[in-house]
Amino acid sequence: MTEPAPTMEDDLCRLALAAGRTIMEVYGRDDLETATKGDQSPVTEADIAADAIISAGLHELYPDIPAVTEEEAGSHNERGHARFFLVDPLDGTKEFIQRRGEFTVNIALIEDGRPTRAVVLAPALGLLYRTEPQGGATACRVDAEEMAIHATAEPIQVREPDNDALVVVASKSHRDQATDDYIARYSVADFRSAGSSLKLCLIAAGEADFYPRLGRTMEWDTAA
Description:
Helices cover about 25% and strands about 30% of the residues. By secondary structure, it is α+β, with helices and mostly antiparallel strands. Strands 3, 4, 5, 6, 7, 8, 9 and 10 form an eight-stranded mixed sheet that branches. The longest helix has 20 residues. The radius of gyration is 17 Å and the shape is globular.
């Protein structure tokens, strides 16, 4: 029997897992080197290595689709195209440096200003979220050591919120008084704290109701 041709999501998953493998190799070392970028955000060799893996893979697989990645400043002017990839090779670098585990690899396809296909991998947590070609999204478990999928993907969807008992998810790195004041306007039954794009994944999977963020966000943090 002929194997079905891989979908774009399959390709993006393979690249995310390859990047995740390299990220976890760096994560397991004691001699982690960090630097500070022009916007005062941290960057590590894991960010750079994962960016190189994903960029090279996208160029080989989809040479006609530009890729915009956080760590390649020269790629940022490609956002004017109607169709392009948008990549954050290591979202949650602060969580990575502090060994909190809540960092992700984000890859999205943007078409006419909207993200249409995407993969989010949390390598240290062994979680992978992805869109499906037929529509909707799924989540599955990943072996955190081998960076290989070893469980059947399960469909996910947002839930209908109970406005009298909301579950809020907020940033560990960007929590401030203004955010607390905003949350206080609502009837909150539970609060979950998460790093990186995992906050948005919790909403997508129906595990939280909303994520208040009053400060700026970057496209590569939110697209996937």
